[in-house]
Amino acid sequence: MTEYGVGIIGMGFMGKTHTFAHTVMPFYYPNLPYRTKLIGACNRSPGAAESARDALGFSYATTNEDDLFADPRIQLIHVCTPNACHAAQVTKALKAGKHVYCDKPLTMTAAEADELAAQAAASGLTAQVAFQNRFFPSTMRARQLAEEGRLGEILCFRAEYLHSGSIDPNKPMGWKQGETGGVLLDLGSHVLDLLYSIIGGFDSVFCRRRILYPARPGKDGQMHEITAEDHVTLMLTLPNGACGTVEASKIATGIDDELRVEIHGTKGAGALFVKDSVHLAPHIFGGGQEKNVRPGTEPLPAIAAFFGAAEELDIKKSLPAVTALRDGFVKKLSALDGVVINSGADALPYIVNISLPGRPAEAVLNFLSS
């Protein structure tokens, strides 16, 4: 079996996350034709590097990234360092003949990114950026629907990646609050890449950015000027003239970490909530009716089909209270003419998809509460 030695530069939160991925791969993919081995952990802080060696299973620790590039036991380099370090470290890795997995954003400028892309193409090595949101079941299904033309011509779209990590004015600043950080590079890169992977490139962009607090305390206890934005709003235009918005924020009070995307076309639409990475909520038009379609299933417009799927999952045994609530809800709805309740075999007891053609939502709610 082929074995790939791994070296990781930057053993902070993200370096540990990349390390975790290697350790759990055999649990999720037991028949892989290769395996990986953690060889070198590099961090500018000796303590962090040594902790990674001792606790995470690396063969050695170092503060010198060149040790990893020169090590013949290492075939794959992970770059998990601050943004401004990426370009030089990826270049070194490629020149050393190493495959590269670089955390986002790839570089600080488009020119640097173009240069790295050219180097990677010429090297014949595998080089990838950590845009993992592309590969969830829901996002792959959305891309498939778009590629098959089932959404039609894109009319409009909106996306947002929201976090509340910068609300506290007394939170000490880190490198992400400096000139090489900011929410556009940190969160915005994810949502822009996800949109790009589904609907393609953008023709023009307008961006408005905001810094919430002009100064924050540093680790030295002194106040420092903040140059990185906490919130951005972008208006994007596709080549066909369709307009959409993208919002990225670390001052979205009450939200932990949420990425949402909605895309509307002439034939259908799709909505993604990446925290629920399995389910896509597409709406495909056909025969004058709008259908809700789950990945890998066909619409089932009969209540009996929903109950059958529920029984297969033993819902009534595991969640009796939820099932009773659902049954009462469906019983009321079934008294309305024209009601259609859709569900697939992977239905959960608290998810019911309802179509009530021609009936205002307010009238339905009044009926249910009566």
Task: Summarize the SSE layout with pairings.
Blueprint: E1 2-9, H1 13-28, E2 34-42, H2 46-56, E3 60-62, H3 65-70, E4 76-79, H4 86-95, E5 99-102, H5 110-123, E6 127-129, H6 137-147, E7 154-163, H7 183-199, E8 204-210, E9 215-217, E10 223-225, E11 231-237, E12 243-249, E13 257-265, E14 268-273, E15 281-286, E16 289-292, H8 303-312, H9 315-318, H10 320-333, E17 340-342, E18 353-355, H11 361-369
Parallel strand pairs: 1-2, 1-4, 2-3, 4-5, 5-6, 7-12
Antiparallel strand pairs: 7-13, 8-11, 9-10, 11-12, 13-14, 14-15, 15-16, 17-18
Helix pairs in contact: 4-5, 6-7
Give structural notes.
This protein is of the alpha/beta class and 370 residues long. Helix content is 33%, strand content 27%. It contains 11 helices and 18 strands. It has helices at residues 13-28, 46-56, 65-70, 86-95, 110-123, 137-147, 183-199, 303-312, 315-318, 320-333, 361-369, and strands spanning 2-9, 34-42, 60-62, 76-79, 99-102, 127-129, 154-163, 204-210, 215-217, 223-225, 231-237, 243-249, 257-265, 268-273, 281-286, 289-292, 340-342, 353-355. Helix 4 (86-95) packs parallel to helix 5 and helix 6 (137-147) crosses helix 7.
